[in-house]
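Write out this protein's structure.
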Amino acid sequence: MYLPPHDPHVDDPMRFKPLFRIHLMERKSATVECMYGHKGPHNGHIQIVKKDEFSTKCNQTDHHRMSGGRQEEFRTWLREEWGRTLEDIFHEHMQELILMKFIYTSQYDNCLTYRRIYLPPSSPDDLLKPGLFKGTYGSHGLEIVMLSFHGKKAKGTKITGDPNIPAGQQTVEIDLAHPIQLPDIENLRNFNELSRIVLEVQEQVRREQQEEEEEGQDEEEGRSRQGDSQQAEQPAQKDDAGAEGTEAAGAAAAQESAPTSQPFVLPVGVISRNEDYPRTCRMCFYGTGLIAGHGFTSPERTPGIFILFDDDRFGFIWLELKSFSLYSRIKVSFQNAEAPSREAFDEMLKNIQSMTT
């Protein structure tokens, strides 16, 4: 298991924790040992469920228990998972979330199901190299997000989740066709000014989507009047490709014309778990972030701003929450994780999202 560094140190390396091991024996037999807990390796079991999926089961869960009971187990888990004691955490809401996570994760006793994850394919035109990033999520601590590019959109998909937004959901979406020009540093400190700029772009995006829908309806009506759907479809496809090409060219032009770096500071009132964020950025884009209540209740996409700092770090300001998330690239080298095709990667994304909806 790869664990994120202790909150909120996103630039620190990932932590490694063995969960099971396999001893290959003679005559094609093997023994499986569970590594969970603090009493050393013990008897376990692995089952192949289907292609790209397997399950582990511990056969001696008493090895996971501690002499001091659940309280000692919780304090040990807190030190290892968060790098602190309960006395260090003053915020009641954060204490509640941490306790909820401990109860949720400890109930499985290393009886887990694993599914293959592909790393996102990359293109020379991408804003930055796609991949896995560690990100700050307020009282939830650090979470792992996969950044991937899809034409004029970039998507951040949660690989690890929390009680509000589970793993598999699209936490942020970046609209690469709508760059945002930040105000000068003094006006940037004013949250209302930044909010005004972002909401103006949101309204522009809404109008464009409405126009696209109306054009689509007009084309549909035109095709049905002509009675020849095949002939009508070909020019429509050309128009769509042309529109997408124009937007992609617009984003590329914005990227080229933007200064290599500009001063950046968080507006007053925006909460950040990590004050050690970069003070210069390259580019900013309009985006949306997914928020929800506990248990993924009433999910909704809300406006925000994506900030590209450098090749390995980006940020996102959640306008409605007045909160800032800082993301830093995971530099672990994963073997055999490349997707066999773009279609295979898109199918994987769809599958992990369907598990939690």
